[in-house]
Amino acid sequence: MPSLRDAPAQTIIAPATPAGEGALGVVRLSGPGAWPIALGFLKSSGVPPAELRPEPRKILPARVLDGEVLLDQALAVFFRSPRSYTGEDTVEISCHGSPYILSRLLELGQSRGARLAEPGEFTLRAFLNGKMDLAQAEAVCHLIRARTSWAHRSAARQLEGRLSERTGTLRRTLLELLAHVEANLDHSEEDIPLLSEGEFQSRCGALLQEIEALSRTFRVGRLIQEGARIAIAGCPNVGKSSLLNALLRAERAIVSPAPGTTRDTLEEALQWDGLPVVLIDTAGLRAHTLDPVEALGMERTRKAVEASDLVLLVLDESRALTADDKNIMREMRRYRGQGKRVVLVFNKSDLGSSPLILNGDSFEHAVRVSAKTGEGLDALLAAVRRCLDLPEALADAPETQMIASQRHRRCLERAAAELESARAATGGDLEGFGEIVAVHLRGGLDSLAGITGETTTEDVLGSIFSQFCVGK
Ligand SMILES: Nc1nc2c(ncn2[C@@H]2O[C@H](COP(=O)(O)OP(=O)(O)OP(=O)(O)O)[C@@H](O)[C@H]2O)c(=O)[nH]1
Ligand SMILES: [Mg+2]
């Protein structure tokens, strides 16, 4: 198989708009044959139709001819390499958004030598042709998927190149350090002053701290990008499903006075006052059940709790704590010990409280709410934010770019590990062990370069771009 990076580019074609009827449907062609292929079926909109004379970046009214038959009246824009999204010759054709017209247009393109694009292939080409780096290409995918203002801002910053700039600065600092270490090895480089062991340790340590700080932004960055997974757990009948419905402002889950109503987990994504979250309603937990379906439901509850970022542990404030409540609280305390975040929710505040359970016990985040009247839901949101250590608004988050991708985190962790090894390798004598130190510093540079894609293998590129939609 030819390498991705130097494969002779075939011309690709794909719809750039979603399937289904719409006001407009856009088809895009990219590659050396894009112009001749498009000019094969696009004719001037004059009478009679004649050859089109495209000028780059100008909107051109055109007829799309399917043999002798008019397929549609369209607008076409031609781009000349390298001034296009992909960096190649490109044509974008805006038709009426008819699934028939678009599929016919794709066939016309293919019959003239284009092939259907793979998911993300336009952006892959943009990356390979140097139009954007890998972090920016990944941001395109996040930008399209962003469902909330927070997710959108974070992706837009990355697309602008903020993450690339930040890693670029780290790489330059590391490169300087490497130059000093190499000068220590080879005294012929007279311009570069020699570095003492102490200086090396402190400069390398400072860089390590910066890399680790960026890596730590992953937790919040990911929550913003994907939404915090919040499991609603508790005994049967405490009002978990009612709470889900109240937060969604919709009767999504079945609510009934009979305990054991919810049998399976149920997920809904929403913007909770700007905060992207995925709420998970669960089957009530109790110590004993003879019903195998309920037992399966409880197993799923525990899995949902384990996979969540935060648990809302719901209790019924109108009655005294039951043995089951106490069991669940004990279980949640164990989860908290493992770092799980838990907010205690005293529901049914409209019924008046039972004095027995009003203290939050050893849970530092506790809120009274009524799923029925909506009382306390704002306070609940505030508690969730605090518990997740999320800023009040993205504007309050540090201006520096956060990372939201596991891949970026792994690159940073590998870079940090290399720097740790470099610091340990000097053995108190930088000159004596300079060669091995330099090897680790070069390893750190390579890992950082993975974020923007310079050192990324084809397998990894393939798996990144396969997550894109077709036509992007
Ligand atoms: N007064 C009052 N009743 C509530 C409140 N929340 C829930 N309920 C009632 O409590 C009962 C149980 O509510 P659900 O939401 O089905 O409880 P659940 O925790 O999902 O129960 P399971 O699915 O059986 O585990 C229903 O009759 C609700 O109307 C509340 O805030 N105030
Ligand atoms: Mg329920």
What is the class of the largest domain in the CATH system? Alpha Beta
- Please tell me the CATH architecture of the largest domain by its name: 3-Layer(aba) Sandwich
Percent strand: 15-25%
Helix and strand content put the structural class at alpha/beta
Name of the CATH homologous superfamily of the largest domain? P-loop containing nucleotide triphosphate hydrolases
Q: How much helicity do the residues have? A: 40-55%
Radius of gyration: 29 Å
Report the uncertain regions.
none
Largest pleated sheet: 7 strands, mixed
Number of separate strands: 13
Tell me the strand order in the biggest sheet.
3-4-5-6-2-1-7
Q: What integer is the average pLDDT?
A: 90
The tally of domains stands at 3
Q: Helical segment tally?
A: 15
Short structural summary:
The chain has 472 residues and is of the alpha/beta class. It is built from 15 helices and 13 strands. Magnesium ion binds next to helix 9.
Could you explain the architecture of this structure?
The protein is an alpha/beta fold. Helix content is 43%, strand content 18%. The protein folds into 3 domains: 4-131, Probable tRNA modification gtpase trme, domain 1 (Gyrase A, domain 2), CATH 3.30.1360; 138-217 and 403-453, Four Helix Bundle (Hemerythrin (Met), subunit A) (Up-down Bundle), CATH 1.20.120; 226-395, P-loop containing nucleotide triphosphate hydrolases (Rossmann fold). It is built from 15 helices and 13 strands. Helix 4 packs antiparallel against helix 5 (149-160) and helix 13 (406-425) packs antiparallel against helix 14. Bound molecules: guanosine-5'-triphosphate (GTP) and magnesium ion. Guanosine-5'-triphosphate is lined by residues 236-242, 255-257, 259-262, 284, 347-348, 350-351, 370-372.
